[in-house]
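Hi, here's the filled form for the chain we discussed.

Project: internal
Contact: R.S.
Residues: 452
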Amino acid sequence: MNKIARLIILTVLLSVSLSAAAEGPTLIYWNSDAGKVLRARIPADADYWQLSPWFAEQINQTYCSVASAITVLNAMPIKKPVDPIYAPNAYFTQSNYFTPEVIKVISPQTVLAQGMTRDEMTQTLIRQGVKATSIAGDSIDDKALRILLQKALGDDGQFVLVNYLRSAVGQAGGGHWSVLAAYDAQSDRVLILDVAKYMFAPAWIEIGDLHKAIATIDTTSNKARGLVLVSEDSQNLGQLYQQVAASPIRTDDDRQVDAARKPAEFLQFAKVQPGMLVLDVATGRGYTTQLLALTVGNSGKVWAQADKPRDELSKRLASHPQPNIIPIVRPYDDPVPDDAPKLDLITIILNYHDIAYMPVDRVKMDQRLFNALKPGGHLIVIDHSAKKGEGITVAKSLHRIEESVVLDELRQAGFQLEQEGDFLHNPADPRDQPFFHMKMPTDSFALRFVKP
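And the returned structure, exactly as it came back:
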């Protein structure tokens, strides 16, 4: 091969090499043609659907950490502070994020000057009452990162904050915080919701490129950047459920039936959390309604539905007013208020059997309940078990219903069964008497459905 030919080949190879190096990581932005394809197949259980209504833009050029944190916190069904700007509504802002406890970790002035490290992000989130787990970018490989994000970005109760170096993903800038929202298995990419919306649209990045960007060193901490996983603190919730069950405003009659109804176990099974919007169908005397209202707190609401005014509930609220309980009178086949926002939770406790023998269009009712829930919202049905094969034939005489009837009807409405609870199961119950003739707790089924 002569010298000229060799020179040409070397020039071509060098050109290709330089071109590839110049391209670096390839981001796919939200409004690009490829981005439209990816966003069209965002999974129904992706965090994106919970995060997008609360997606915040950083209010200055160093508050990316705070904007990312409040995006996640506002998407979570937890107790939220009331900012005077939005009073009386509870809402995390980039101002009220800095509680006295948070300021012990880092001050607004420090964040304004230099941003927030991964450890500081973790500690400030913990002080907001949530569980926060820090993962260094250099402590995992591509495979582990992929497995982690496939799970965490689905409907598992976790959200993911990401700290990465912008230049490592082909963008102008330095260290940055944002929120991860979805994983696309076909392209092996994750969606970054960039809180600097004035600079960059949301973008999809390959797992390998993301790993390189989070494994870079933060010059403030001299540690690798990385991820922070955020979820509710189950230990705190367990303590809350016990406190609710022990509340002094609950009646003596309530406490007499607690052994059979197990209020703390019920709240745990229903996954009730502060700030939730809840509908209690067939409220009766308000036993369940009050438990729900005490748990969701002042930042949540409970609509207590009945088909006619209930004196027992009125007396309960007269003795101990709870502004977050809203009594409503509506028919069972249309139990949701017309002006209600999308709900987090609906409960029908020990009353589906009553509705079954009434002149109620249950198909219409179940569809109305399905439509009222947010995606990922839950419907809880608990009722006295009938014998196999009895269906709804003993609904009026024995006040029982066969579990399979409830399962079939709600699945037809679009619900998916998420979990069956056995905390009210009593195998000693012969299931041949109504509950008010029993000297023992009835055998009751507990079903948690989810709206996909």
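Let me know if anything looks off before we file it.
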